[in-house]
TrEMBL record:
<dbReference type="Pfam" id="PF00724">
    <property type="entry name" value="Oxidored_FMN"/>
</dbReference>
<dbReference type="InterPro" id="IPR001155">
    <property type="entry name" value="OxRdtase_FMN_N"/>
</dbReference>
<dbReference type="InterPro" id="IPR044152">
    <property type="entry name" value="YqjM-like"/>
</dbReference>
<keyword id="KW-0560">Oxidoreductase</keyword>
<keyword id="KW-0521">NADP</keyword>
<feature type="domain" description="NADH:flavin oxidoreductase/NADH oxidase N-terminal">
    <location>
        <begin position="4"/>
        <end position="325"/>
    </location>
</feature>
<keyword id="KW-0285">Flavoprotein</keyword>
<dbReference type="GO" id="GO:0003959">
    <property type="term" value="F:NADPH dehydrogenase activity"/>
</dbReference>
<protein>
    <submittedName>
        <fullName>NADPH dehydrogenase NamA</fullName>
        <ecNumber>1.6.99.1</ecNumber>
    </submittedName>
</protein>
<dbReference type="InterPro" id="IPR013785">
    <property type="entry name" value="Aldolase_TIM"/>
</dbReference>
<keyword id="KW-0288">FMN</keyword>
Length: 339
């Protein structure tokens, strides 16, 4: 029996396999961040392709937290109906569903002032963000909490909090960005304070019956930035705060990409955090073949594999992978003749 196609149970949610459709922004939202037909078809196709977990793209918890004006949002009850359609169809196909709640911070490109832990832009030519004070911090925490309330009402199985890739919560974590001298800055405990407060606020609305994930950037790919040892410490904190899985990516705090990118280049981060912090992890980053994904799960290097661009190229990757690994056809009955 394939390890990749073993179920994965956490709390009241059981994924049918270990394949996750990683959150990928479509930049296709309609008026004011609403779901469009594009999202219905795009996510529905990956669910029909039998991913174990369909995770929707970074969804802004408030308008000024969008990466772009075409990002999805969940800052009002008016956004909920479109998400309900995606969730209902995906779950009917046997896929579990998740939503990644996010705030872009200083990497937002919107028509209003943007926020950051410190008043420094992402690039020298970008707008200078507002350094967040107590009011802005409280507003962001409440925005995450209310988005979590809506996600629960919509029927999502899992929430992921986006604390990676140089967006707001990652900005607070990274010493390259966070230059504060108050209780939200300084050492890792201070820099992680906002993330901890967001997690507690989200859990108060989300409850404890269903899993809560957090995506982190394990390293900043900079000698003065966040290091793997910091991520291990952070993962231990996340476990203590009741987080069920750490989705392990890297980079994004600076405009500079990692020096070397190769198949599975981030898996070592997920493996180390899983081993050292004793928490479930997801691996992501140029995982493209069935054999590669199987090896990661079989050797207990991570608990889930998050696939991104390969699922853009082939939404039925999971069905093909099952065949390659000797698993009986698991796709929709309507497509069985094609396999």
């Amino acid at each position: 029996m394939s390890f990749l196609f073993q179920p994965f149970k956490q709390k009241e949610v059981t994924l049918p396999n270990r394949v996750v459709c990683s959150p990928m922004c479509m930049y296709s939202a309609g008026d004011d961040g609403k779901v469009t037909d594009w999202h219905i078809i795009h996510y529905g196709t990956r669910a029909a392709g039998k991913v174990g977990l369909l995770m929707l793209e970074a969804t802004a918890v408030e308008p000024r937290g969008r990466i772009s004006m075409k990002d999805l949002g969940l800052w009002s009850d008016e956004h909920m109906e479109g998400f309900k359609r995606i969730v209902a169809f995906a779950q009917a196909q046997g896929s579990k569903t998740a939503i990644q709640l996010a705030h872009a911070g200083r990497k937002a490109f919107v028509d209003e002032p943007i926020l950051a832990p410190s008043a420094s832009p992402f690039r020298p030519t970008d707008p200078i963000p507002v350094e967040m004070g107590p009011t802005e911090i409280a507003q962001v925490i409440e925005a995450f909490a209310q988005a979590a309330r809506r996600a629960k009402q919509i029927g999502f199985d899992i929430i992921e909090i986006h604390a990676a890739h140089g967006y707001l919560l990652n900005q607070f974590l990274s010493p390259l960005v966070n230059k504060r001298t108050d209780e939200y800055g300084g050492d890792l405990i201070g820099r992680a304070r906002l993330l901890g407060e967001v997690i507690h606020a989200v859990k108060a609305e989300w409850g404890t019956a269903r899993p809560l994930y957090v995506r982190i950037s394990a390293v900043d790919h900079h000698p003065d930035g966040f290091q793997l040892s910091d991520s291990i410490t952070l993962a231990r904190m996340l476990k203590e705060w009741g987080v069920d899985l750490v989705d392990v990516s890297s980079g994004g705090a600076t405009p500079h990409p990692p020096a070397h990118v190769y198949p599975g280049y981030q898996v070592k981060y997920a493996e180390t955090i899983k081993r050292e912090a004793g928490i479930a992890t997801g691996a992501v980053g140029l995982i493209t073949t069935a054999e590669q994904a199987e090896e990661i799960i079989a050797n207990d290097r991570a608990d889930l594999v998050f696939l991104a661009r390969v699922l853009l190229r082939n939404p039925y990757w999971t069905i093909h992978a099952a065949k390659q690994l000797g698993v009986d056809y698991l796709g929709p009955r309507q497509y069985a003749r094609g396999f």
